[in-house]
Amino acid sequence: MIRRRFLEQAGLVAFGTLGPDCSVTASQRASSARGCDEQSAQESAYVIFQEGGIVRGVNARTGKVEFEGKDARRVINETLNAAAAPGKTWKETVLIKGPIDLDLGPASWDPNRRSGIEVPNYTRLRIAGKITLVANARSAPKQVNYIVTNKDHKTGRQIEIIGGEIDGNAANNQHGIYGIQVSGATDVRIVGVYVHDCRETGVAFENVSRNCWAVNNHVVGRKDLKLFWQDGLGNQFDCHDIFYIGNVAERCRFWGIYIEGGSNIVALGNVCHHNGRDGIIVGSGAHPGNSISVIGNTVYENDQHGIRAHSAKASRGLIIGNIARNNAAKGGRHSGIVVNCRDFCVQGNQCWDDRPEKKQEYGIALLAGAEHCQVNGNNVRANKLGGVLLQEGATQCHIHDNQGYRTESHGMAKGSSPITIRHGLCSAPSAVQLTPRGPQPVRLSYEADAIEIRIHHDAELAEVCWQAKV
């Protein structure tokens, strides 16, 4: 009865409705989500909720209120620390039942930084409802403020942050404030969190974090506020084995997903749209990175490029099966996919612009720093200037079999001299091979431009096999 009473007090259980299987009827719940909150409460070591301006941390096993007060930050962190007692090597679950208003304070590992919630190792933090950063939060002047972060920034491990809503209240705050920041940690999962209105990155992995996953999160920025720096999700400072899967990043000041360096970084099945710069950027900053895979994402109506592999020092990457459409939303020299790196494979992407006034210049652009890149099997039709741009300075790049940008063609021609052929190539061929058919010897020569090949011969009628290559 003690456990039941505190669940009722937290608003997670209605009187007389909790059965052994946690099942409820439609008349007893406003939505199925309420039932999910109830299930989470029963699985939790502690439940935290706010009532009448007082925040309480309740031991879910005893029903005892162990921590309470008006300072949500203090109560939440004391409760989390109690759940993750020293020596535990299994994850304890702590449920925060919103709405809760949260302020920042000096971080436990560095008093010059500011944090809200500090999640200890071996903790599963479930958020049900909304956590809102208070107006005029006690943030530091630099980009060292975190609404949610891990407590151990050197050897953090085994942390999950699941569900709920984090409101950064950007319009009523100042300085760079992250939504969720993970630093120096391994084996971290951030799943299904709605993060919005933060003045810095919504979900960030930093400082040699490893094996970290951001899955099915939704980050919405405030592009209209002209913030100093804001991305949807991202990593920097030599992270490894970072996975972004099924996230949505929209309307951020700069990039939807920002990948600065590291190795084995995977962006899979994300949607990035209406961001102030690129949908996804790879290899930016001082840590260019390698072994980066951008696969099956949809990037559209971003102000600049859809996907940009930026640094000439970045190497060994895959950009495969993405959809990049209607980018360059504000015009300018921007394309669907831009590559300025070494040893990248760009394959099976669809890059087009179907707006009445096309703005996306090229489907795919290989800039001067591109080296040993493969561009194969992409659909690059219907862009403003062309399918593929190969900028002067790009070296040893191979472009083959792309729809809307043919680099090789062949066929049969027959007729009197000159025989005129529309070759359908992306530019004038650099080489044309002609082979006559028939028993009589025929002298052959040709002229070629960006549209046609004209074959000259000395017979009344000739049949010629031709092959042309850019």
Structural description of this entry:
The chain is mainly beta and 470 residues long. The protein has 3 helices and 43 strands. The N and C termini lie far apart (80 Å). Residues 1-7 and 12-36 have low confidence and may be disordered.
Topology:
Elements lengths: L1 H8 L22 H12 L2 E6 L2 E6 L5 E5 L2 H12 L8 E6 L2 E3 L2 E2 L7 E6 L3 E6 L1 E4 L11 E6 L5 E7 L2 E3 L9 E7 L1 E7 L2 E3 L6 E4 L3 E6 L2 E3 L12 E4 L3 E6 L2 E3 L6 E3 L3 E6 L2 E3 L6 E3 L7 E6 L2 E3 L6 E3 L5 E6 L2 E3 L11 E3 L2 E6 L2 E3 L9 E5 L7 E3 L9 E5 L7 E3 L7 E8 L3 E4 L8 E7 L6 E5 L3 E6 L4 E8 L1
Parallel strand pairs: 1-4, 4-8, 5-9, 7-10, 8-11, 9-12, 10-13, 11-14, 12-15, 13-16, 14-17, 15-18, 16-19, 17-20, 18-21, 19-22, 20-23, 21-24, 22-25, 23-26, 24-27, 25-28, 26-29, 27-30, 28-31, 29-32, 30-33, 31-34, 32-35, 34-36, 35-37
Antiparallel strand pairs: 1-2, 2-3, 6-7, 38-43, 39-42, 40-43, 41-42
